[in-house]
Amino acid sequence: MAVLTELSLRLPNSPGALADVCRILASERVTIVALGLEPGGRLRVVVDNHIRAEGALREQHHAVTRRDVLVMTAGHGPDGLATPLGLLAAAGVNVEYAYAGSGEGQMLALVLGVDDPVRAAMAAGV
């Protein structure tokens, strides 16, 4: 993987809020690659079709913002994260935030919010 678009929106702190978003995406046949939900209700989600997802969420009155992020796969072994993150650190790339989702096979899809995703992708070799 490489540079993908992340969608971000605020959810109310109420039962079913996250399930509703997942239902909206499922009804549009949008697959979630990774998601992260913060205690304040900020949902960050990377999907396989961000255009369709954004439209469906906006149609349901969600305020959605977009941001390019670095998405890379990492193994589940002891150095699965240390090696690629070490490459980013050596290139002077600061990771502002990170979350993960299911990847291909036994791989982890790691989403990294960085100031320059293209430069980060080049540094990490993705």
Summarize the model shown.
Helices cover 30% and strands 36% of the residues. By secondary structure, the chain is of the alpha+beta class.
Assembly type of the shown chains?
A: single chain
- CATH topology-level name of the largest domain: VC0802-like
Strand arrangement, major sheet: 2-3-1-4-6-5
Structural class: alpha+beta
Strand content is 35-45%
Distance between the termini: 7 Å
CA gyration radius, whole angstroms: 15 Å
Can you count the helices? 4
Any idea of the CATH class of the largest domain?
Answer: Alpha Beta
What best-fitting shape do the alpha-carbon axes yield?
elongated
Helix content: 25-40%
Low-confidence stretches: none
Major β-sheet, in short?
A: 6 strands, antiparallel
How many domains would you count in the coordinates? 2
Number of strands: 6
Mean pLDDT: 90
| Name given to the CATH architecture of the largest domain | 2-Layer Sandwich
What would you give as the CATH superfamily of the largest domain? VC0802-like
Question: Strand-and-helix sequence, N→C?
Answer: EHEEHEHEEH
Task: Output the keywords.
single chain; 126 residues; VC0802-like; Alpha-Beta Plaits; 6-stranded antiparallel beta sheet; 4 helices; 6 strands; elongated
